[in-house]
């Protein structure tokens, strides 16, 4: 049997350009406000079921057109100290959203994020954020961009076009062709620029529409998975939880994982073998960083998903380690592959 798995969408961009606030708008949450130092310091993950995307998109998308079960968003820090976390997020992604503040334009970590996307050949779109700050902008809360833009005076529209063409120029220098999303003819060779405001919600329906559309139209092949394939993933964080001991928060990006499965977690010298005691899933739209004790127990989890794994023998596991579900046939092979990486 084959299945279409949830695409992994990674938010990348310079510090404070609005990655977490964009996700807050989609989730209906206020994670960004509670972050220490008002910056993101870890990789986050949130599953957005297709029903919620359908609600937010309104008439832009028909439910019958959906083939993906939802989107799994990965949030990354924009602060310059966290290059390795951005790189890890970028490497996991099927598609990325490069968030650029419309006032500040391209900044050092925007360039760095682009380098990561080039290195992993990750398709991406640009969310040109904070359009509510363009002088004269008239807000219509949560409105699709194509509706909002018709409400703006000519002068404001021209200002926005200038911002967009500044980004088109930056992307051109980096070797990418780009255009405002509603003028893109072929997303396989043109980067779509979606003007949004994470604060007012304008353009968020368009961003979601483009992400679902591009995922389904241009890389559906990558999303077709065998339903029983052994799971593969990456460790995001190792956490001590009250009553559970050491646990790992992971992204499962391929296959299936079951309670009772054995996994190998790759450390360079000696992969660690352990057995899944329980699988804990955040509720839909909940950021895995914020779940506290509010998880749902699962017997089986399909990719792509952010989950907490409870298992013995996690003392020498670190963030960034890969893991795979093993069985008697493939254990030696996977061990050798992990040791040679
Ligand atoms: P890091 O994770 O630390 O890299 O930052 P970030 O990209 O996640 O930015 P964050 O979402 O934390 O937003 C930074 C600041 O910009 C916050 O004060 C937000 O309220 C503000 N902000 C984000 N989006 C918008 C927007 O669309 N309009 C306006 N006016 N402010 C915004
Ligand atoms: Mg953030």
Automatic annotation (TrEMBL):
GTP binds at residues 13-20, 75-79, 129-132. Residues 4-221 form the Tr-type G domain. The keyword Protein biosynthesis applies. Keywords: GTP-binding, Initiation factor, Nucleotide-binding, Protein biosynthesis. GO terms for cellular component: cytoplasm. Transmembrane segments: none annotated. GO terms for molecular function: GTP binding; GTPase activity; translation initiation factor activity. Function in general translation initiation by promoting the binding of the formylmethionine-tRNA to ribosomes. Seems to function along with eIF-2. Belongs to the TRAFAC class translation factor GTPase superfamily. Classic translation factor GTPase family. IF-2 subfamily. This is Probable translation initiation factor IF-2. It comes from Methanonatronarchaeum thermophilum. The lineage of its organism: Archaea, Methanobacteriati, Methanobacteriota, Methanonatronarchaeia, Methanonatronarchaeales. The gene is infB.
């Amino acid at each position: 049997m084959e299945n279409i798995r949830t695409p992994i969408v990674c938010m990348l961009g310079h510090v404070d350009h609005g990655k977490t606030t964009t996700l807050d708008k989609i989730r209906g949450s206020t994670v960004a406000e509670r972050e220490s130092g008002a910056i993101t310091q870890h990789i986050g993950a949130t599953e957005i079921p297709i029903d919620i995307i359908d609600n937010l998109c309104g008439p832009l998308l028909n439910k019958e057109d959906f083939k993906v079960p939802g989107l799994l968003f990965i949030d990354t820090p924009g602060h310059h100290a966290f290059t390795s976390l951005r790189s890890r997020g970028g490497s996991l992604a099927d598609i990325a959203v490069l968030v650029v503040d419309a006032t500040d334009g391209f900044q050092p970590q925007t360039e760095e994020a682009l380098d990561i996307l080039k290195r992993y050949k990750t398709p991406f779109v640009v969310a040109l954020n904070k359009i509510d700050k363009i002088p004269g902008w008239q807000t219509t809360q949560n409105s699709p961009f194509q509706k909002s833009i018709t409400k703006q005076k000519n002068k404001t529209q021209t200002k926005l076009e200038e911002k967009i063409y500044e980004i088109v120029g930056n992307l051109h220098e980096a070797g990418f062709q780009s255009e405002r999303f509603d003028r893109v003819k072929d997303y396989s060779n043109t980067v779509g620029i979606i003007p949004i405001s994470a604060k007012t919600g304008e353009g968020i329906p368009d961003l979601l529409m483009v992400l679902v559309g591009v995922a389904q139209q241009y890389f559906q092949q990558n999303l077709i998975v065998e339903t029983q394939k052994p799971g593969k993933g990456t460790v995001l964080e190792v956490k001590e939880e009250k009553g559970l001991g050491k646990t790992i928060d992971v992204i499962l990006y391929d296959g299936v994982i079951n309670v009772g499965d054995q996994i190998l977690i790759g450390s360079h010298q000696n992969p660690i073998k352990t057995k899944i005691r329980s699988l804990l899933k955040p509720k839909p739209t909940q950021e895995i960083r914020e779940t506290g004790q509010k998880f749902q127990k699962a017997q089986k989890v399909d990719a792509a998903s952010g989950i907490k794994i409870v298992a013995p023998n996690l003392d020498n596991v670190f963030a960034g380690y890969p893991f795979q579900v093993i069985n008697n046939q493939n254990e030696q092979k996977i061990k050798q592959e992990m040791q040679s990486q």
